[in-house]
Structure formats: structure tokens, C-alpha cells
Amino acid sequence: MAPANRTLEDVPFLRNLAATFNVKNIPLAIFLLILVCIACVTAAIIIILCIRSCLRRVYKTKPKRKPLKTAYLEDILDPVIEPGMCGLLTYALEYELTNKCFRVVVVEAKNLSSPNETKLHDAYASVRLLIRSGPKWIPHGPRYKTDVQRNTSVPRWHYSCNYTITETELKNSMLIIEVFDYDSLGQDRSVGRVEVTIGEIDMGEYLGATFEKTVALKPGSPKYRGIGEICVGLAYLTNPGCMEIFIYEIRRLDIGHAIAPGKDVISVQVELKHKKRTLGTFETKSRIDTINPYFNEKTMFNIKPKLLDEASVVCSLKKRSTLGRRTILAQAIIGPQSPLNTGTKQWDEMRSHSPRTHVMWHVLVPHGVKLDEINVN
């Protein structure tokens, strides 16, 4: 009858295992066997992973090399200035689809045309964005202006401005960049302008990237002459909160067709307005001279500083007949909403250099002419 209790020494396999490992303790031999098995499994896994990695490298599809973007010679060199062109302008465009931000950068201008021999300018640029609405172009957002680069032939602005606009609106928009020669007393001379139809540019060029281009400037808008010019001085006194308005003179009036010589007299009515509300009015004394009348009169109106952003001064040239009938012949508007750059320019100068009086000549626009349709800046 076989014994009931068997020990590890009674198992032949374990005795042979202990002899193989050259140990006397059978549990130690079992432990060594387990370690050997773990080592073999680990080695097998490593070998399999190495073989798999090598096979993936061999049979992996190589990515196609992207073709280089074609660069044409005219994109590298500055465009040739043809007769009638007024210089070169470099600008850049960017559009971020996530926040609908359209960024315009006015980089620099060069080879600007000049009416004098010095060829030096007090140059700045204006930026406007228009959206097509039927047959018309409607302004979108504010009109931006760079700083004035003085006494230079190559103004470098590197000025950027942003417009919030949807992708659909952007494809139906036009960007107008116009370069001006600054005049401290009157209308700035338009050197040239660029009209960029955004829809004609591949959106991939400026979507999430920078599209930069140098183009020739077309002749700018001529100065608007109107029927004469009026010299106005403005000063804002912050402490009492009032505005001083000086009406000095009018020059080169062309109203012979609208008055009766020797019978009609002229005067200037001054109105200070906030939006459509009139804050005050003043009228100069009448003058017989209908070509270069001299007034040199002053008035003051109270207005709070917070109202200046939406205020304006309207100077109306009036005639009075022998029967006492008054008729408005022309107007000049000074303020942020003025359609002529002299109006916005003097208003900005007045606010920046308060309480100093700033004097400027303004074009008198014939009464009845829609100021927003005048193609000047």
C-alpha cells in the first residue's frame, strides 16, 4: 500500500529540476523555474514587438511631398509704375474665421508722385471697408487713419486695423486704401489710392495666414472745390465746458448766379448740434462783398465733453434779399461725421490741442448737394 503523504522529494520531475539547477532545495528550484519562464515570455514579447515595428516601417505608405508654391517673377519684384500711376503701396491681409476678424496692415509706400521738385511728403493713409448692397457700396465699420510720416519720400507706417465681418460679407466687400499729403490748413491732397476687391482673392491666401502684396497707386480723388472756402477757428475749453468758434473770412466765392449784385447781402449762420438737436445758433453781420467777405466774429456755446463724439458745427452761408428773404446757399460741416476730411481733421485737432485755437479752411458745399455722395476724402 502506497504511503498516504508524499513530499516534494518524492516527485521525480522536481528532483531532476533541482539537479538541473544544481541546487539541493526543491522550492528554490521551483522559484528559479518561474523566473526562467517569466524571462522567456518577456523576451518573446520584445522580439514580437521588434518584428512588428520593422514590418510597419517597411510597408508604411510614404507621405506625398507637397509641391512648392509657384512664385512668379512679378510677385517677387515690385510692379512697374505705368504712366498715370502715382506710386507703390504695400499692404497685408489676414482673416481669422473663429472670431470673424479681418485685419488690414498698411506697410509702406514709395515712389509717390509729387507736384513739386522736393518729392517729400507729409504722408498718411486712410483705410475704408465697403460692402456691396445691390448696386451700391455701403461703408462697414469706421474709417481708419495712419499717423503722418513727415518730410519723407518712403513713408513706412506698419499700421494695422481690424474689422469684424462674416465670411459671406467679406467675399462681397471692397477695401480702399488712399494715401494723402497732409495739409495743416485745408484739404489734404490725395496722392493715390488702391481698390482691392476681396472676392477676387483666393481666401486660402489670407485665411489664417498673411497675404502681402505691393501694387501701383491709381490717381486719387481730386480736391473738391465747391463754391468757395470759409476760414473757421475752433477751441474747446474743458474747464467751463464750452466751445469757441471763430468765423474769420470767406475766399473765392462763386455765387454770382445766385445773387443780385448790389441788392443781396450775405452772412454766415453757425449752429452747434448734437446728433439732430441744436445746442445753439449764431449769425454774423451781413456783408456786401460777395467774393472775399471778411467777418472776424466769435461766438461761444456750452457743450459737455461727453457730447463731443457725436457733435458737429454747421456753418451755413446765407443770402438776404431786399425783401428780407433768407436763403441758404452753401454749408460746411465740421465734426466726426463730416464727409470731408477737413471737417474731421479740425475736430480731432481741436480735441487734441485744447484749449489752443486751431484754424482751417473748409469747402462750402452748395445747398442741396448730398454730402455723402461727394467722392472726396
From TrEMBL:
Protein name: Synaptotagmin-2
Ranges where the C2 domain occurs: 85-211, 226-351
GO MF, one annotated term: phosphatidylserine binding
Record has Nucleus as a keyword: no
The organism of origin for this protein: Fasciola gigantica
Source organism phylogeny: Eukaryota, Metazoa, Spiralia, Lophotrochozoa, Platyhelminthes
Classification via PROSITE patterns: C2
GO annotation terms (biological process): calcium ion-regulated exocytosis of neurotransmitter; synaptic vesicle endocytosis
The organism's place on the tree of life at top rank: Eukaryota
UniProt xrefs under InterPro entries: C2_dom (IPR000008), C2_domain_sf (IPR035892)
Keywords: Membrane, Transmembrane, Transmembrane helix
Transmembrane segments: 26-55
Gene Ontology CC terms: axon; dense core granule; plasma membrane; synaptic vesicle membrane
